[in-house]
Structure formats: structure tokens, C-alpha cells
Amino acid sequence: MSDDAGTGLPGVVHVVATAADLADESASWLSRVSEEAREEHGFFAVALSGGSTPRRLHERLTGLPFVDAVAWAEWMVFFGDERAVPPDDPQSNYHMACESLLSRVPIIPERVHPMEAERVDRAAAAAEYAALLADTLPPGPGGAPRLHCTLLGLGENGHVASLFPGTPALEETRRWVVPGVADYAPFDRLTFTLPTINASEFVAILVSGGAKGDALRGVISGTVPAARVRPKDGTLLWFLDEEAAASMRR
Ligand code: 6PG
Predict the structure, then answer these.
(1) What sign does the CA torsion over 242, 47, 159, 235 have?
(2) In sequence order, which ranges of the chain are alpha helices (DSSP H)?
(3) What pLDDT, on the 0 to 100 scale, is given for residue 2?
(4) Are 190 and 117 in contact (CB under 8 A)?
(5) Is the CB of 50 under 6 A from ligand 1?
(6) Whose CA is closest to 196, among 72, 79, 34, 55?
(7) What residue ranges do the domains of the chain occupy?
(8) Which helix (H) or strand (E) is 229 found in, with range?
(9) Ligand 1 pocket check: which of 94, 152, 212 to mutate, most ligand atoms within 8 Å of Cβ?
(10) 179 close to ligand 1 (CB < 6 Angstrom)
(11) What are 148-189's pLDDT values in tens digits?
(12) Chain centroid to CA 5: how far?
């Protein structure tokens, strides 16, 4: 039996009523997964995403019961992508994560690893981040470093992380982190590649609101970057609110 909630999306699909329910459901799931990883490995390695939907998840995690229940000190925090702006710029994914989560829970600062996408030599910054991942995490399927969980938002054009349609970053097969180019500002990015995302134990894609219908249909027809998110030895989960699920049917 399929567990796609009748959506046709690949993986396990959770459809909930509202954006607030989506934050709640994904926070419950993430706290469970982090606890399982802590029990099994002694730490939880997660890659955060930018975007407004992931932000609501972060904010929910800072409320009860999660703020007290999660073993924050065992979290190791990475980023799936970053924009080429300084870390204190409001457009920075790191800045967003600090404001909405990292500064509000007892995560150990040394265990938070921002991507230095603002560096002039972005290729070097990407290579250093890839080396950090490879030095910290065991290799997963395909040889890429294996995170316990990669969180992603979905762009209206079907991008995930900063893997934009028609860009070389999307076709990368040998490197774990590369410079990427977005189709809206800030254009320059650093991003996980598909091999890195697909080596994760869990990949969760959070989708809220009525604007993502084309992107979601593109996942089903295999025509957008998000369609290529298929964890090799892991689980793909989608968290949709009702508006997002309804937008697929229009
Ligand atoms: C970025 C993000 C990007 C984002 C999606 C969805 O840096 O821009 O990582 O991939 O997650 O564009 O964003 P929303 O949830 O705001 O629609």
C-alpha cells in the first residue's frame, strides 16, 4: 500500500490542515528522529534550509514541548544551502536560523557550521565545507557524507536547496558542496549537491501554501530539481498543508 496520501508524490507524505499544523507535525517528527539518532549514534547531524516554511518549523521547535524535550547539546547543525551575503544579513539562511532557532535553544555554538557563501572564492568555500562534512560524518551510499536528516523547502520552480533548474550544480555527481546560481537575488549561492542530499538517512521537504502546485506536479512528472531527491538508502518525507495539497489538483 502506498503511503503518499493519494498525492502521487514519491516517499511518505503527511498532509495536515494548516501551516501551523505543518510546523507542529514536522517538529514532532524531527524531535523523534533526533532522539533516535542520539540513541543510536550519540549525536544528531541535521542540515537546515532557508525559506519561510522551514522558518515556521524552527519557531515551533523553540516552543513546548520541544524546547525542553530535545537533546539540543547533541545536535550538529549544517546548512543545505546559503546565499552570498554576510552572516548578519537578513537574507542569510544562517541569520534566519539563528533568529528563529539557534539563539533560542541550548545548541552548542561550536557544533553549528554556517556556509561561508559570502567569500570571494566560493569554490574554495564549497570545497572546505565538503571537507568538513566528510571529516565529521561517515560516508553514506555513493560515498557522500551521511547526515541523519536534510530539511528542504520547495521553490515555486521546483528547486530545493540552491539546486536551480538548468544549472550545473544540479548535474554535479562527484562533489558534495558546490557554488550555485539562483534565478532570484541573491544570485550566488553555495549548495549541497544531489549526491549529498540523497546520502541522508532522512530527507524532509516542507511545502506550505497555494503557490507550489506547478512544482509539486513537476515532481510527479520528473521535470523539476526536487524530483531528483531520492535518498539512496534512506527515507523521503513530504510535509504538506492542505493548501499545498489542493494546489496540486488545480
Ligand atoms: C533558499 C532556500 C530555498 C527555499 C525554497 C522554499 O536559500 O532560498 O534554501 O531552497 O527553501 O525556496 O522557500 P519557501 O518555504 O519560503 O517557499
Answers:
(1) negative
(2) 19-41, 52-61, 66-69, 93-100, 122-136, 168-171, 194-198, 213-221, 242-249
(3) 67
(4) yes
(5) yes
(6) 79
(7) 12-247
(8) none
(9) 152
(10) no
(11) 999 999 999 999 999 999 999 999 999 999 999 999 999 999
(12) 22
Determine the distance separating the centroid of ligand 1 and the alpha carbon of 176, expressed in angstroms. Answer: 19
What pLDDT is attached to residue 250? 79
pLDDT for residue 120: 97
CATH of domain 12-247: 3.40.50.1360
Pocket mutation for ligand 1, best pick of 53, 91, 150, 164 (most atoms within 8 Å of C-beta): 53
Cell of 90: 537578513
DSSP 8-state class, residue 238: E
Secondary structure letter of residue 189 according to DSSP: E
80 within 8 A of 192, measured Cβ to Cβ: yes
Say if ligand 1 is within 6 A of residue 93 CB. Answer: yes
Contacts of 121 (CB under 8 A, 6+ apart): none
Counting as low any pLDDT under 50, the low residues of the chain are: 1
How far is it, in rounded angstroms, from Cα 107 to Cα 112? 8
Q: What are phi and psi of 200, to 5 degrees?
A: -70, 150
Instruction: Say how many residues make up the chain.
Output: 250
